[in-house]
From TrEMBL:
Protein name: FMN reductase
Keywords: Flavoprotein, FMN, Oxidoreductase
InterPro entries in UniProt: CE1759_FMN_reduct, Flavoprotein-like_sf, FMN_Rdtase-like_dom, NAD(P)H-dep_FMN_reductase
Coiled-coil regions, chain positions: none
Amino acid sequence: MKLVVVSAGLSVPSSTRLLGDRLAAAVGRTAAVDTQVVELRELAVEIAQNFTNGFPGQALAAAQEAVAAADGLIVVTPVFSASYSGLFKSFFDVLDPEALEGKPVLIAATGGSARHSLVLEHALRPLFAYLKAVVLPTGVYAASEDWGAEGLDGRIERAAGELAALMAGLSGGVPAGRAPRAARADAFSAVVPFEEQLAALRPTG
């Protein structure tokens, strides 16, 4: 299965990229995945040019194709002005409108304060629901004080388990790459009800 991490971190090193890497590693401990990372800071100029001329550059086109062909996505943004970054939004604005349809997406964000944790619910979840993605119930927010603190690892493992389970269900019997819409719909119906799969992932007792 192909997993793509979209990171909108701007600095090097980046806590946004670090969170994406930790989520991807957790998915890899649960399922066999081929992971690719898309660093949006490296595509910033091509994204801006795509808005003005209507054509993606070579690197941006490759990133768009990778996202469209993925079996699942991890998307991570820093919090700017209580929302996702402009670079993060701009990348998804230049994707094919149907690229994320029926695709499992794990949403995540980083910020300087825990007060911004609701960005997952008021900004990221509505965006990917609009793009017709299957947004996982568990999102992961990491504030500065969360790194090394108790709790973050548990949220990462829970979200990664949800993503691995849904990717496996949707990829069963579906051709590699971006499946036709009917095939994706059949695969999705095969794993309904999703709530039962999530219940099986939660610890008992």
